[in-house]
């Protein structure tokens, strides 16, 4: 079956045949006899051809020249003008009083000025006063000064690089694996390399000698890595984050074969941790008291649920003050948004079992009912006040996530607390470096319902690096590895 196709004649051979291809494409392409090509056709001309496609390819049956477009006629001719060119100008009106009052004819309401009411008062900004009460706006509590954020440690590889420099070249690759994932990382890398060697028809790497080298290097590398962290924390010891300092102290108990200088550094880190915890605890109590003093109860409640140390008892006197301030905000005429904000913050504070308002609000919204139902496992006394049945098997809820801003990141905890104190509920900021909260912690002021508190940060776990190929160590190196590592 033939079809019509536009082709381009690409060249003409000495034997008289032409080569062609589809116009604007690479294929189909082929040859055509000179007898089919019009006489006035040249190379690179585009013509219309009748082609037929079969198993041998595309064959040209006939060629017709492309019709040229007829010249357009009947167009209007633009003649130049003999008049001189004049640019367009504009003139702005000068500023002055409006002439709306200079209209001709009497006004319907007499000769009183425009904008003045019949009672003599101006519509906006007039001197005359009316008896209508002005709208009252909510005054946000005053701002509190923010404490400087604790500094996180950024350890340098001074001691680790010194240990690596002392090792033979064949042992450095193994030491890097030990730093990234311990002995299991070395085993995994050897297994991966052996699988590749078997697939390529090569011999396997002897694993026992390399594992022995890794076990001998592990204590030295762990001590060097710990010293880098401790020395970095020593430079900012008065401002270092308590979680980082606690992690350094906890990891120090796992070190073996340490020298006298390292023991002195361990004692200094333990003493610094005691001082930092006392300072942070004092600041914690002061921040809660200051927030209650200025009326930022939501912020005080959220601060109370973030102790600087897990299991830290909450002072009974401060708990009574915080409970009274919370109940004082849960009035029957308070809006539902205020109830939700206070209850969301109080449910995860040490006083969650003591909060019991005298009466329910005048208007119980659907959102408030959902909030009390969700917080029922933590505040059963509040659910009983609203007549909501709490499922005894229900799991304790978690704090709401802070809303994200336009950039996709979560808002700071201070900004969320300010918004909740002034407008309504906002979820507390969840610190990504804090460990998961335990299900229950006993404090002197809490009831039988568990209170989630911030747990101590665990010892840092070094993530496993991508598997790299470990070069096969010579037999002499593997045999002498324990002696070199022990030195």
Provide an overview of this structure.
Helix content is 38%, strand content 8%. It is α+β, with helices and mostly antiparallel strands. Among the domains are: 2-64, OB fold (Dihydrolipoamide Acetyltransferase, E2P), CATH 2.40.50; 158-276 and 462-486, no CATH class; 315-422, no CATH class. A hairpin with a 5-residue loop joins strand 1 (2-12) and strand 2 (18-22). Helix 3 (207-235) crosses helix 4. The model is unreliable at 122-129 and 423-487 (pLDDT under 50).
- Give the strand tally: 5
What do the pLDDT scores average to? Answer: 75
> How helix-rich are the residues, as a percent range?
25-40%
- Give the class from helix and strand content and strand pairing: alpha+beta
Largest sheet: 5 strands, antiparallel
Q: Order of SSEs, N→C?
A: EEEEEHHHHHHHHHHHHH
Radius of gyration (CA) equals: 42 Å
Q: Proportion of β residues?
A: 5-15%
Distance between the termini: 88 Å
The number of distinct helices, counting runs of at least 4 residues, comes to 13
In one word, what is the shape?
Answer: extended
Strand order, sheet with most strands? 3-2-1-4-5
Low-confidence stretches: 122-129, 423-487
Identify the notable features of this structure and list them briefly.
extended, 5 strands, 8% strand, 487 residues, single chain, OB fold (Dihydrolipoamide Acetyltransferase, E2P), alpha+beta
């Amino acid at each position: 079956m033939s079809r019509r196709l536009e082709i381009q004649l690409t060249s003409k051979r000495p034997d008289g045949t032409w080569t062609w291809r589809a116009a604007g494409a690479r294929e189909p392409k082929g040859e055509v006899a000179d007898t089919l090509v019009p006489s006035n056709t040249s190379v690179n001309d585009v013509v219309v051809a009748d082609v037929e496609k079969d198993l041998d390819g595309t064959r040209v049956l006939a060629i017709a020249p492309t019709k040229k477009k007829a010249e357009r006629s009947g167009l209007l001719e633009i003649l130049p003008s003999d008049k001189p060119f004049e640019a367009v100008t504009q003139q702005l009106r000068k500023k002055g009083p409006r002439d709306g009052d200079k209209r001709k004819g009497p006004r319907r309401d007499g000769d009183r000025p425009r904008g003045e009411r019949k009672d003599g008062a101006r519509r906006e900004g007039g001197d005359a006063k009316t008896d209508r009460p002005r709208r009252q706006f909510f005054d946000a509590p005053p701002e509190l000064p923010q404490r400087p954020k604790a500094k996180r440690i950024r350890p340098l590889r001074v001691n680790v690089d010194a240990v690596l420099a002392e090792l033979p070249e064949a042992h450095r690759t193994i030491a890097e694996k030990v730093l990234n994932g311990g002995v299991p990382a070395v085993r995994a890398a050897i297994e991966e390399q052996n699988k590749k060697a078997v697939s390529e028809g090569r011999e396997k790497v002897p694993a026992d000698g390399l594992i022995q080298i890794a076990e001998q290097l592990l204590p030295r590398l762990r001590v060097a890595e710990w010293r880098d962290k401790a020395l970095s924390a020593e430079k900012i010891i008065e401002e270092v984050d308590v979680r980082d300092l606690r992690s350094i102290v906890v990891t120090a108990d796992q070190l073996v074969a340490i020298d006298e200088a390292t023991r002195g550094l361990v004692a200094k880190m333990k003493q610094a941790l005691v001082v930092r915890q006392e300072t942070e605890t004092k600041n914690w109590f002061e921040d809660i008291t200051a927030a209650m003093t200025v009326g930022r109860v939501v912020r005080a409640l959220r601060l109370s649920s973030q102790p600087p140390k897990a299991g830290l008892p909450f002072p009974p006197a401060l708990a009574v003050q915080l409970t009274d301030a919370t109940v004082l905000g849960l009035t029957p005429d308070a809006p539902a948004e205020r109830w939700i904000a206070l209850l969301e913050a109080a449910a995860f504070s040490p006083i969650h079992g003591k909060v019991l308002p005298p009466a329910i609000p005048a208007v119980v919204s659907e959102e408030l009912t959902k909030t009390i139902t969700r917080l029922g496992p933590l505040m059963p006394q509040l659910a009983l006040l609203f007549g909501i049945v709490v499922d005894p098997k229900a799991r304790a809820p978690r704090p709401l996530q802070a809303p994200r801003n336009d950039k996709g990141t979560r808002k700071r905890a201070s900004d969320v607390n300010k918004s909740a104190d002034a407008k309504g509920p906002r979820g507390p900021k969840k610190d990504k470096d804090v460990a998961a909260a335990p299900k229950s912690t006993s404090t002197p002021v809490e009831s039988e319902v568990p209170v989630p508190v911030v747990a101590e940060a665990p010892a840092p776990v070094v993530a496993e690096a991508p598997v790299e190929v470990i070069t096969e160590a010579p037999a002499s190196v593997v045999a002498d590895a324990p002696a070199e590592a022990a030195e």
